[in-house]
Sequence to fold (215 residues):
Amino acid sequence: MENFEAVEATSGENKTENKKNTKSKAGDVLDVIWLCIFLIIFGFWIYLDKTDSEPFLFGRVWNIRILFTLLLFANAINKFFILKKRSAGRKTFITYGVLITLIACSFLYDVYSDIKNTTDMEQITLSDGNEIIFKEYIEQKKYTYIDVYQANGIIAKKLGYIDEIFFYNQCLLQDKYSYEYDKAGKKLTVICEHGSASLEEQYGTGFWKREFTLE
Fold:
């Protein structure tokens, strides 16, 4: 009888130990997954920052700041699960829970601000197949710009911008622009009808031209 109880106790200990090992392995796999996600986002962010590009996802060009906030969120989630595996104290979990919530709110606010401050966005296909994206947005609630990008998959390379500070028109939103493209030289010329009397004195045509060189 005693032998039976001893065997049963040993069997119970083995089961407990197996559960701990399984849980530990699952935690290790989760750590690796989150680390990979972090490294992918970090590498993508570094590449975009060094090449003056921004992410082009879901049919929109997003501010690179959004990607950085997402990077912080992924890192905070990773730290949270590491602490969970190590059975950290309740206060630590609460602290990280609040931190994750704040980062998530910051990410959502950045997304909302980017959408709210963008007045219009248009995508055109040039004669040689190159995709161009125009993004008109308001900065500091009063200055309007048009960023010009060359799209390549999920990456939008910034070619330059058009400053509409002295324009009466929001050229993209009001559809008061046109473009010309030199396929041989890969030169894109954007012509905006500025509608500004002060600019007409210097540029009597009433139009503002800006040239961009594609890669």
In short: The mean pLDDT is 83. The first strand starts at residue 53 and ends at 57.
